Amino acid sequence: MSLPHPIQRDLHWLLTSPLLVTRSPYANNDFLAQFASPLLPRLPTLNQYCQSPLWQLRPGARLGHYYEQLWRLAIDLHPDYRLLAHNLLVKQGKRVIGSADFVVQHRPSDTLEHWEVAVKFYLGRGPELADWVGPGKQDRLADKLSRLEQHQLPLLMHHEGLQQVQQRGWKISTQRALLQGRLYHPGADDVAPAPIDPRAPRGRWYHHHALPQGHYRSLHRSDWLAGRDWRLLPRFAPWPALTWPRHLLSADSGERLFVVPDNW
């Protein structure tokens, strides 16, 4: 499928990239495929709308925010879903205690659903969930799953969140967490921790001194989802020594990988 606009390509990635976790209460890949089915044929026709100022979404420094906007766009375009709320704030007095990503109506069943969505890229440093961290080492896979399951999904089912739902006359019947992204294994290791789905996208990471020889292109944050043709990406120059992790694409194999400073 030839999609000229980056929003089209990123929407295609969102609709087709396997989920990282598929156990309950997370959505599974069958749900994602069913959701994507009426939207995928429409993607080539959206090019003219992508030129509108209303569609000028850009990842910038906040990839998670851009990813949420892509989901909002997908929901708005979907024939079976109607958006009721996005980033619904839940307060305790004057203090914000959380926000619900999406409340949607499933039109065919006339039921309401609460969705939490996230895109994450983790590098494995050991066999346990807590050993998988973001490139900046400030975000852990174990912490993200815990927050989704223990804080974000229950937000509208208890206390202040439930009051907001009831005040609007809503009854939430389904909750889903949708977590996409990619896991990067150290070197040749490819064992992912439970509960990662076996179909989750994978890559590799290397310390700078151990990066195999090859032809690499640098991935800007705006290329972390679908990305551009590799020939349009800037070449990666491995020297001087790295001071920060770099996200790369191998021009030889097409594999995505991270290279990190030797003291990472």
From TrEMBL:
InterPro entries noted in UniProt: DUF1853 (IPR015003)
Domain of life: Bacteria
Protein's name according to its UniProt entry: DUF1853 domain-containing protein
Biological source species: Ferrimonas balearica (strain DSM 9799 / CCM 4581 / KCTC 23876 / PAT)
